[in-house]
Amino acid sequence: MAVSCVISAALVLSACGGGSSESSAPASAATQKSEYVTPRTMPEGKGSNAADGDFPRTVVHFQGKSTLEAEPEKIVVISTGQADALLTLGVVPVGSTAGDGADMIPAYLTEAFPDDADDLAAVTSVGDRFAPDLESVANLKPDLILMNTAGKDAAAMYKSLSEIAPTVATQGTGLYWKQDFLLLGDAIGKREQAEKWLDDYQTEAADFGKGLPDPGNVSFLRQNEDRTRVFGVASFSGSVAEDIGLPRPESQSFTDETSQDISSEQLDLADGDHLFYGVQGGDATKLTGLPLWDSLAVVQAGKAVAVDDDTFYLNTGPTAARGILSTLEKTLG
After folding, report:
1. How distant, in Å, are the alpha carbons of 51, 78, 86, 188 from that of 57?
2. Which pLDDT score is estimated for 33?
3. Are 266 and 243 in contact (CB under 8 A)?
4. pTM assigned to the model
5. Which of 2, 137, 156, 205 is the most exposed place for a label (fewest CB within 10 A)?
6. What is the CA 50 to chain-centroid distance, rounded?
7. Cβ-count burial of 285 within 10 angstroms (0-12 exposed, 13-18 middle, 19+ buried)?
8. Do residues 209 and 187 touch, judged by C-beta distance below 8 A?
9. Cα(140)–Cα(125) distance, integer angstroms
């Protein structure tokens, strides 16, 4: 069985995870531990009661319920991180959308699943994740479509997609990646496999954390387009730090948003004992060239690490989470 959790009923998240920070107060590098826990179990009332491999199965999801008569063989993914989740369970989608300004199949997935390289190269683009090309989706004749409800008119999208094939809607955003992984696994008849993967991952993360006597806190920073953001406890990268038991800078202890926008004058909000920063497109100078960059204590200590933006900040799937864990193990271990 998957590990259980206690979820704060008071948590409220923005759909896109991108609120603005108005504070100009100096950042505190003080250690802050949160009682917040990322949701780790199947969403209440969702999924099916069917065992792995049993079909037909009726899956209750975030836009209703869908019946799959047989194990799906041709799956189209609409939302970021769902290709990752499928590949983690041994399935290659036939069609996919892409994240904003990102590759349809990010490099970290090609590297993680080299045996699937030919099939991944053959995945068909079906447009934008907020406005998929319905004709392209239909032309693939899928027997399952996967979407999420975050940041879009989910009801309208679901109606359009479900007219093409059975469609299952997960919740979306990096906060819910674990429960979404389980729901997606249920839809393809591999829920128990997803539970086993998640249990193994949780154990590895916790064991690593127990072996760190005093790792210090970890800070997460991303730059994309005209936005610079720090990421809080209730974020994708933050969830991996939480799984390890790593403290966060006080400036990133928030749980009411996934991230907070900062100005170049507020760069000290990214300071900490260890900093993991990503830049969309890979041009690190968009951050390292900022006037205040060299004044950060973490930079002066040589503990600011450039990371893969797709893995840490854009794709919210289990293989990306393990990639974050691996990076933290190499850096802190």
Report:
1. 9, 22, 18, 9
2. 58
3. no
4. 0.89
5. 156
6. 26
7. exposed
8. no
9. 10
Pairing of strands 248-249, 31-32: antiparallel
Give the tens place of pLDDT for each residue, 258-304.
Answer: 999 999 999 999 999 999 999 999 999 999 999 999 999 999 999 99
Per-residue model confidence as pLDDT tens digits over 35-46? 678 899 999 999
Q: Are 103 and 282 in contact (CB under 8 A)?
A: no
What gap in Å lies between CA 9 and CA 328, rounded to an integer? 30
Locate the DSSP E strands across 149-264: 167-170, 218-224, 227-231, 248-249, 259-261
> Running DSSP on this structure, what letter comes out for residue 174?
G
Q: Which residues, at least 6 apart from 33, have a Cβ–Cβ distance to it below 8 Å?
A: 247, 248
User: What is the end-to-end Cα distance of the chain in Å, rounded?
Assistant: 29
Please state, in angstroms and as integers, the Cα–Cα distance from residue 300 to each residue in 30, 272, 276, 297, following that order.
17, 11, 14, 5
What pLDDT score does 47 carry?
A: 98
Looking at residue 36, its pLDDT comes to: 74
Nearest to 168 by CA among 79, 95, 93: 79
Run of H or E including 239: helix 236-244
Compute CA 109 distance to the chain's CA centroid, rounded to the nearest angstrom.
Answer: 13
What is the token pair recorded at 292? 């205040």
**Pairwise CA distance, residues 137 & 126, whole Å:** 6
**Nearest CA among 278, 269, 289, 272 for reference residue 332:** 272
Q: What angle do CA 33, 272, 324 make, to 5 degrees?
A: 75
